[in-house]
Amino acid sequence: MTTQTGSTVTRMQTTRAGGQMIADYWDNIFTARERGKHVVWYNGSALNPIFQAAGLEWCHGEAFSARLAAQHLEGPAQLAGAEYGYINELCSYSRTHLGCAVLSNGGGPAPGSETGVVDALDQQELASKLPKPDFFVNAYSGCSTGQQWDEMTYRVFGRSIPIFNVSIPFLWGNRPDSTYMAGQEWDEATDYVVGQLRELVTFIEAQTGRPFDWDALSESMSYIRRASELRLEGMALCERKPTPATYWDWVASIAHINFLPGDQALVDYFASVRDEIQARVDAGVPALENERYRLYFDGIMNWNKLGWLAKRFAEYDAAVIAGRYTHSSFWQEPQLIDPEDPLRGMAQHYLLCPINHSLKTLNYLTLRDCERFEIDGLVFHSTRTCRAFTNPQTMLASTAREHLGIPAMFFEGDVADASFYKDDILESRLVAMLESIDVRRAKAGV
Amino acid sequence: MALRTMGVDLGSTTAKAVVVDEAGGIVAHRVVQMGAVSRRGVAAAIDAVLDDAGLERGDLGQVIATGYGRRLVPDVDRTFTEITCHARGVAAMCPGAALVIDIGGQDSKAIRVDEVGLVDDFAMNDRCASGTGRFFEVLARALECRLDDLDDLALAGGQDLEVSSMCATFAETEIISLLAEGEEPTDIAASVHRAVSARTLGLVSRVGRAAPVVMTGGVARSRAAVHFLAESLRAPVIVPAEPQISGAYGAALLGLESLQGETRVIGQAVDREHVHTGQQPNGRDCSTCSLGRAKYQPIDVELWTASIAADRRP
């Protein structure tokens, strides 16, 4: 039955070590000014290969908010954001990052002004860490808040810093020939985004005063393509029962694939991830000691609770194996990347953001991965301040129930605000779903 | 001594305890109102039900705990979620029930149940207390009346004032504003009940409508709540004689079935064995099975036994 048997997650050594790569990346950002580098703040799509080729230092706002939340350091930034006027119903990624902007700017639109709610130590700590941007680039797909986020930051800095906006159209998928990554809409949207990326390059050249290095972009994208292939090979190994790695391992590798530099170190990292998983397969080492349930996780991560959730699910022998955030995101279709013509594959991945699809495509992706990984149940993280991700969730649950006969559970929480989450609610619903999985198995005579 | 088991349901505002006999019949039951998840409340409920049944704790074959505070219940053999227990209890109280709507003090849930009381699907309210018993307490306080008086008030109301169903705290402010504007308490009470029904309908939509509908939980004791829910569902709503004890009753039955060897998982294993062997492993004939119906295909009992053996939790 569904009571705990006390499995623990055997965490991957590679992803544990990978944390240092992320720490080094941020430490590098924090010293950008000292090294005379241009700094760009951006949100949404993984534009970092363009920034890398242009010789910039890049700060992904969501990523920094997630990092603060994972370290339980988000509070002061959110307080500063709230004092400025960004209430807690606003996306917690954005208000954390906007709070950082407020702190970086000295507490308000007037440089040097002070915030009244964040103490001096916290203000100094955060403000000194994230360097002010030289310009902003926004390229957010599928989320209306995201599309306005950098413009809000632009206003926090007194409208004095240049901003460039890339518009990513939503993929409605409602034309007769529309399918996943095919059809007239797909082709037209790709062309539209590619055109804007060319304009972005021109904008960056104007900001840096240097010609753009197209060879560097091709090189970076070739590394990213290889890293992505290795990542997918590792994911494919998790089709095995019991799984050799879990969703939580892939969450631990999001930063690497999403915004770390495209270079040999990135390829080496994902080669190590793949190799460690393969070694587990060869040695018969499962991710959980006693895998009894295979689950799919839909929702952006609840970063405040990452470690806790991983342990909690394991205690019930529930292996969370795949998810929309990990498996339908982040250079997940490497065959689209042509290093000789990098912008097209990049544009297509920006369109493939998992909140940029119609329900038809999301149904396809969810059912595809549930079947592929032989999923027993779905866990929906109903993210309080991310409606873009939560909007289709009840419909996806219905689809899974109707087409695959598998149950779902919902729990409330948030990406970077722990106040919306409660352990007991998650646990009750998890156990109830596992009980209903038992029932289904018993009915099926499994 | 004859076999007896006990189920204990520790909810957010009440503790319920039920003792059943070896045929699954209720020997004694108690509902104790002791405030939020209370150890004193659960002790009082257990002591009272044992006293009513003329039993000592050591006389019980199994004690199963359920509910929000199930881990606070001392000396239990195991726990189940309230979802599973309510489904099981309602299947025994109201055979044939297809949809269970349980509204307690701080939460509400909709459970789709199959023909033998197994959970097909469920949905629960979010963290907000809106649409729960707490909502009615807020209403009574704002109207300055007793909770028991709300039924007559609400059933006399006509006009729909469209009270928000989104937040119990805001609803209180809304109610006070409506009173200040001179609206009738009867209309306000009726409107709050409609708001709760609307909230409940949202849960039902997530699991799908089904009939017969059975309502349980403390709110099921309210005539007005049942009336407005039936109106909202456009379907009759059945209320068991003791709607608050269905979870504890289900827990007691699950304990009983595990002792009788009927069940590996919520009773269905015995159903397979009935089909497969024509009798229960303990030698009893099927008429003593508290589920009573055998509809499933045989299962691999060894697999289930191994599964249970792996379960090290007390």
Main sheet attributes: strand count, strand direction, barrel closure of chain B: 5 strands, mixed
Order of helices and strands of chain B: EEEHEEHEEEHHHHEHEHHH
Q: Strands of the largest sheet of chain A, in order across it?
A: 2-1-3-4
CATH topology description of the largest domain in chain B: Nucleotidyltransferase, domain 5
Task: State the share of residues found in helices of chain A, binned by percent.
Answer: 40-55%
Family (chain A): Belongs to the FldB/FldC dehydratase alpha/beta subunit family.
InterPro entries (chain A): FldB/FldC_alpha/beta
Protein name (chain A): Benzoyl-CoA reductase
GO molecular function, one term (chain A): hydro-lyase activity
Topology:
The complex is a heterodimer of chains A (446) and B (314).
Chain A: H1 13-30, E1 39-44, H2 48-53, E2 57-60, H3 61-70, H4 74-84, H5 92-104, H6 120-129, E3 135-139, H7 144-156, E4 163-165, H8 184-208, H9 214-237, H10 247-252, H11 254-259, H12 264-283, E5 293-298, H13 306-315, E6 318-323, H14 324-327, H15 342-351, H16 359-372, E7 377-383, H17 387-390, H18 393-404, E8 408-413, H19 423-444
Parallel strand pairs in A: 1-2, 1-3, 3-4, 5-6, 5-7, 7-8
Chain B: E1 5-10, E2 14-20, E3 26-33, H1 39-53, E4 62-66, E5 78-79, H2 82-93, E6 99-103, E7 108-113, E8 119-124, H3 133-143, H4 150-156, H5 168-180, H6 185-207, E9 213-216, H7 223-233, E10 237-238, H8 246-259, H9 268-277, H10 301-309
Parallel strand pairs in B: 1-4, 4-5, 6-9, 9-10
Antiparallel strand pairs in B: 1-2, 2-3, 6-7, 7-8
Helix pairs in contact in B: 2-8, 3-5, 3-6, 4-6, 4-7, 6-7
Q: What are its keywords?
A:
heterodimer; A: about 450 residues; alpha/beta; Rossmann fold; 2 domains; 4-stranded parallel sheet; 19 helices; globular; B: about 325 residues; Nucleotidyltransferase, domain 5; 3 domains; 5-stranded mixed sheet; 10 helices; 10 strands; about 40% helix; about 15% strand; disordered C terminus; FldB/FldC_alpha/beta (chain A); hydro-lyase activity (chain A); Benzoyl-CoA reductase (chain A)
